[in-house]
Input
Amino acid sequence: MISRFCRPGGPKTLCGSSAAQKKFNGTVISRVEDLRPGGKKEAADMDLEALKAQWLREERDAHIRGWDFSHIEGQYEEGEDIPWDYEAVVRSYLSPELRLLDMDTGGGEFLLGLGHPGENTSATEGYPPNVALCRSVLPPHGIDFREAADVRRLPFGDGAFDIVINRHGSFDAGELARVLRPGGVFVTQQVGAENDRGLVELLLPGTRPPYPEQYLEKACRRFEDAGFEILQAREAFPRIRFYSVGALVWFARVIPWEFPGFSVERCWAGLCRAQELLEQEGVIEASTHRFLLAASRMVQRKGGAGDRC
Output
């Protein structure tokens, strides 16, 4: 039987007749079901019981401060083949005298790395654990931090900023037109609608994408309708790789909007398939989805050489 995961963008797996005989930690099995508790091979069952205990520990330990994935560092890779450098793009529009807003700043990690003058820097965040972190971390640097859960109502006056940046956060094009001065620039890197879909199908088949409108072309139209000129527009589908099923468990637990209802017990069959895949290929690999958009708020639309969506 050909696996339904043997398709472009899905995780790597064995396909076709070569899957008829597999080894799990040296034990020959005939199908994935043999890896599950109560299966035919006692040695494989014993191995899986140990792995299950490890996966349950990762499930219990799954939490995140800001946007910090250091817990699984060395066990996964993501973003290494994105064909642009978001920080470099932001810096190309930034200079010390400009008033900067970082929306959905997470824990402020990226913002602090920019080293922009604190008196010209503001940040917002709406996720309660990150709000508490930002309140302790950002004001000592002179940064004006404000809690903002609704991106349609930012707590700033009209034309307050020269540049607004947003990495993987929500935004509203009309509200950005309000808080940016004429000629001000918005720069964002976004997670697209097709992000991690192979992994989601592996663990929670049939789950719908959480943000089905997240495509570059649609975002460009929203900004053009709000009176922006598109300066840069790029889209890519980089790879994500896991070298440990435990790391995948932790990952799925900390982003519940992509993996709703995920747990080791509920997704046991998918995790067994993931472990089999890891034994066979040495990696669990799938596609992510990213797009980059830079747009300038114009009083009057001008012709130019900017990218087109």
About this structure: Residues 42-61 form the longest helix (20 residues). Residues 1-43, 301-305 have pLDDT under 50 and may be disordered.
